[in-house]
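The passage that follows is intended for readers who have already worked through the single-chain material. We present the inputs for a multi-component assembly, then the predicted structure in tokenized form, and finally a short commentary. You are encouraged to pause after the input and sketch how you expect the pieces to fit together before reading on.
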Amino acid sequence: MEMSSKLLEKAVAEISQLPGIGKRTALRLALHLLKQPTEQTQMLAKALQSMREDIKFCTQCHNIADTDTCEICANPLRDRSVICVVEDIRDVMAIENTNLFRGIYHVLGGKISPIDGVGPGQLTIASLVDKVKTGTVKELIFALSPTMEGDTTNFYIYRQIKDTGIITSAIARGIAVGDELEFADEVTLGRSILHRVPFENSLAK
Amino acid sequence: MEMSSKLLEKAVAEISQLPGIGKRTALRLALHLLKQPTEQTQMLAKALQSMREDIKFCTQCHNIADTDTCEICANPLRDRSVICVVEDIRDVMAIENTNLFRGIYHVLGGKISPIDGVGPGQLTIASLVDKVKTGTVKELIFALSPTMEGDTTNFYIYRQIKDTGIITSAIARGIAVGDELEFADEVTLGRSILHRVPFENSLAK
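Having made your guess, compare it with the prediction:
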């Protein structure tokens, strides 16, 4: 698309580098910003820059933080003996939203995926194994997505820590609350029967 | 959504001000930037800022430009006696892409829409009327979207310039090339019969 302004062209090119945003959407966003007060664009640009430059990763769990230790790891009320292993900080937010977990997290930064060129070395697996080996951890909960890559990653970690004798668990896989049984895939349905729970425990709290 | 970083929260809040981008998408974009080299975010932020601060609007046609006069208005080969009236600079790009128009444009900056609080005063109608009254313009082509607001805007302008005696035309409304007749709405189909063209003119060039 030929544009009458190189400045606009440059902005559209940069915006369309973002995932899921094509040239047309980028142009729409750029034109939107041009119609708004200059301050909006300035605030957006500044927020992006300070986020990228000043954000820290928690030295304990690799969660995103504004200080060296994230709020969760710094909270004395959290149970440090239970670690929930997740792919991404979005998963931390999702689990925190449930208000049902009082342990701490370990953010891997992804999962092992040879197709995407992600090997164990690019994830924070080594620091997790070190943490487990200090002996203060009692349970590791694997909360990765139930995909082949998630299972591979779980198993890769499991092999390295199974000799320590800590409890390892994985989040339950089954029919989502509110879903119709007939639409569930057979693997999920099969597992939900295999891993059935006592009825009194199954009721929504 | 509670986030472990105020910097991230601020960035997500700013990104989600953009039209069509919700909190979840904004978070996904912010986390993407955090995974990329710092330079990408810096370049994005700078491109947005310089676009917003340095872009100009053509003093002739209100198209976006890097100089006071846009490339189209500055081009001596364009026919200054034919003005195509459009809502938006995106429409200029779309018509330029056809390579079939050699006149110049006038960008209104929107269309009259009382529901959205846009009156004639917020559009560049006055400068268009002035331009027509100088006497150098022979034809005005209305190329607004065929909606009620588009028609209202066309008619509002038409009333102010009809006494000058210049030719006024509107882009053809009809069945889109490649569309199936049976799926066309009846108003469009009706017009396409009413405004039929000589067969020899109807063939794709």
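Commentary: The CA atoms of residues 73 and 104 of chain A lie 6 Å apart. Residues 38-54 of chain A form the longest helix (17 residues). How closely did your sketch match?
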